[in-house]
User: Fold these one by one.
Assistant:
Number 1:
Amino acid sequence: MINWTLYKRGIKGSWKMILIFAAVITMYFTVIISMFDPALGSVLDEFAKAMPELMAIVGMTPASAELVSFMEAYLYGFIMLVFPMVFCILSAHKLISRHVDRGSMTYLLSAPVRRETVAFTQMKVMVTGLFMLVLYATLLGIVDCEISFPSELDTGKFILLNVGVFCLQLFVGGICFLCSCIFDDSKYAVGVGAGIPALEFIIQMMANAGEKLEGAKYATFFTLFDSDGIIAGETGAIWGIVALFVGAIVLFAVAIAVFSKKDLHI
Amino acid sequence: MGVCEIQGLTRDYGKGRGIFDLSFSINQGEVFGFLGPNGAGKTTTIRHLMGFLKPEKGYCTIGGKDCWRDRAEIQKNLGYIPGEMVFFDDMTGAEFLSFMAKYRRMKSDGRIKELLERFELDPRVKLKKMSKGMRQKVGIVAAFMHDPDVLILDEPTSGLDPLMQNRFVELILEEKARGKTILMSSHMFEEVERTCSRVAIIKNGRLVALDDVETLKAAQVKKYIITLEDENAAASFAGEGLQVHEISHNQVTVIVQNNLKELISVMNRYPVKNIITPNQSLEDIFMHYYGEDKS
């Protein structure tokens, strides 16, 4: 089911992109963590008090004064949603539809390798990249907090938060990958593959903004990633993570089936 | 039953484009020419053989296996030169070939070294920096390196210089002698007449001719433009009973089909200043002949 030659090639082709995203994450993590002040509340909290609507839109409203809650609010409401999402969009396009659009898919399929194997291998490449990014963020978060604020971080909750983000991004990746498999034309593959998650994210921001639009949260899968609930230890939040994970598996399975059955003009 | 069978293969893209009810079969050890002008449906047919497209009607098989359903299985023993060479541009030629060998799960490098030498290709160059001819050579090596029994070649000599075209023809003839079954598409008759024993011609997606290469050679119509001293000479040259296509000033365009000797004997009696053969498309060469009684 997996072709290791293709997998290695895929990883080799992705690591530069992974590094760039890791660098961006590093920058945000170190800057934001340094703003935490256990005694006085942080500069960011001042912002949140000064313009609550604006900060709410990007999910930045801390539930409590704990470090893990602080990170959830200021890193897992926007930064860790947007950057891995962009990684998924780029990666999904690069791995399938770009090859079909350019024609280089010809060589991958003029060999005794089943289409299912090609698609599954490329999916693994994307998921590996995503996993590396989230794993890196998790380790970075833990190490940075441990250095700056020893034993302040509730590591268990922080890891669970990252599991949640990983499942959410896996779901986003599933959408992007499915679009990459459906559309032959890069234009549509990226357009729809990026458009759906982006639109859903905007709906999520609107839902955050105020009570009037709160109902909009039922129209976006981002709601399933209930970061406040995860920190609060709610069971519903755990089920949200499970739902995202199952949804992602379904999306990837459909994507592979679509790619295996479709006509390729290459 | 042939190694490669196409039966009633149809794919309608609308507006008369596509392929329609195409049927032919290629025998073991045969080099089969697949001729047609650009856009006639050669590549569409080949995409079906490669299992890239699912037939709307009809079917095609290679070695008794269905080209759509058993495509991965068929590829074990198949070599393919695509009509357009698109690689992973960040690799060098050598990296690409070794990637393909491993990707195909080949035990060794197969014929890579020998083929590189034969085509005088330096594979250490990045693929995106290669000329069209070099890329074509990389494609040829990739198609033959695992020594497959069946070869599907879509315009395999495009971009090659005449010397390399000759090398390629030699390679095809050797493979033929080794019992390989080869389908070769082209839009130039000259290219297939040197290697193929049988030729199919398609036009607008339909088979218009399927014959021995000898029969087709006899059927081909050639034009010659003969330049004479002046208009009077041209007029009387045109009156010699040859099939004249056009007279303009001192130039006469004659059509020759199997009667080159006659033309030569007439030319002998006139002060001919120049003789040229215009570039004739495949349709010019064959379509008068096949176009009438089939369409």
Note: The interface with chain A takes residues 47, 50-54, 71-73, 75-76, 78, 80, 82, 84, 86-88, 90, 99-100, 102-105, 142 of chain B (CB under 8 Å).
Number 2:
Amino acid sequence: MNFLGIGAIVGATLVVLMPLFLIMGTVIYRGIGSITWAFFTRIPQPVGETGGGMANAIVGTAMIMGVAALIGIPLGVGSGIYLAEYGRNASGNIVRFTADVLNGIPSIVIGITVYALVVLIQHHFSLLAGGIALGIMMIPTVCRTTEEVLLMVPQSVREAALGLGIPQWRTTLSVVVPSAASGIITSIMLACARVAGETAPLLFTAFGNQFWNLKLNQPTAALPLQIFAYAISPYEEWHRMAWAGALVLILSIMATVILVRFATSRGMLKGAH
Amino acid sequence: MDPGIRVQELNAWFGGTQALHDIGLEIPSRQVTAIIGPSGCGKSTFVRCLNRMHETLPNATVKGKVTISGLDIYGKGVSPVTVRRRIGMVFQKPNPFPTMSIYDNVAAGLKLNGFSNRRQLDEVVQRSLEGAALWDEVKDIMKKKSGASLSGGQQQRLCIARALAIEPEIMLMDEPASALDPISTSKIEDLIFQLKQQFTIVIVTHNMQQAARVADLTGFFLMGKLIELDKTEKMFTNPSDKRTEDYITGRFG
């Protein structure tokens, strides 16, 4: 019986891990061959010419993520703090409900909304619009997880601070938030990792670009867009580049997550438990 | 002269449930007043009303008058923050700030209120840790080690030091030794003895021997009402109320 039970558990574990291994395996197998120095330093070549890389897309994704973080982190963390510390009332419930609805909105809808509200007004596809779309997508995740980790800080810690005559806002910022810092940082990183690979919201915002762009108000390349464009192209060479791009995207997301896990578990960040 | 506490017609609620009924009493300055009573009798709620901590709980409300050296702490325009700066509180479970060093824990009340003179902070921290009989044990590690790394008894003395650092006039202690072993408990009790030279102390306790050991006065609460408050000696030998006698002799509670 015992043997059967353990067998079932191991079997179930393998079934759960299978998709991850399949994805990783396929991407590595197909992509590793095209990972060259040029891939990280060159921009795409015109059809028919070999070589070239995705340097502009890698930088583009990094810049879009920078804009997204500037929008998503302050709003997400701020609203999460509000919900945990001041939000046990009707207006808190409205924020909570809004965040949950926002979380459920398909990413393409967010993309098209940003298209209507930013791109049409700017008369340009742009890096900024892409960042705004991804930033909006980050907000609900960061908000609700921040709320959850703050609620895990024992009430007694808040009472200790209030009992010393420390005002509530100061208690929140200097005592409660630092106690939950590692959890908040983890939630931010997971939200970043989640949106970094989003393609749909970038289709009509960042749009994509075959050349370098470092300007906020110009269309820009991004890894997921480049992968998408190459993968649906008819050229064998571009397919290989798409796989390589997918591999770089996955590895950089994994690297971020692992780095954060490592940093928080080692207590390198203040407030880690 | 010194701040004692006068409580008049104090009522407190949790939502629709009334936790305190018309409490009226006077707590003399520079003495230890113990509050005893069975679980759920309102004794913790009572001390939490003395520094306006009760109202920090969801749906908790208070009505009544609590006067400390002439100031009605529930008066119009009185900020709970200033009230709490004058009244230190030590809680049942030691609750040092988990992210702060021992030093920062003690300095927190001052630092987080904008006080930043290094030399004076050092002095206050040393004086407070000495006052809480913890200085010798932590003086070499206080800037490196976190407050959470201390033993339970040390943590509770750290919490006392932290409360002393804001130089309060009154100390409220809500079952400060109930989570501690007998040796740590006796250290805390010794400390209470010394602290009463400077402070008015109100201590909630589950443990009647403890009340008998440390308190000058003892008040007995039952079901949200003050049954009686008298000299500890009299309370434990010859209480006026039958219910007090029943409780003290262990007939219920």
Note: Chain A has one domain: 57-265.
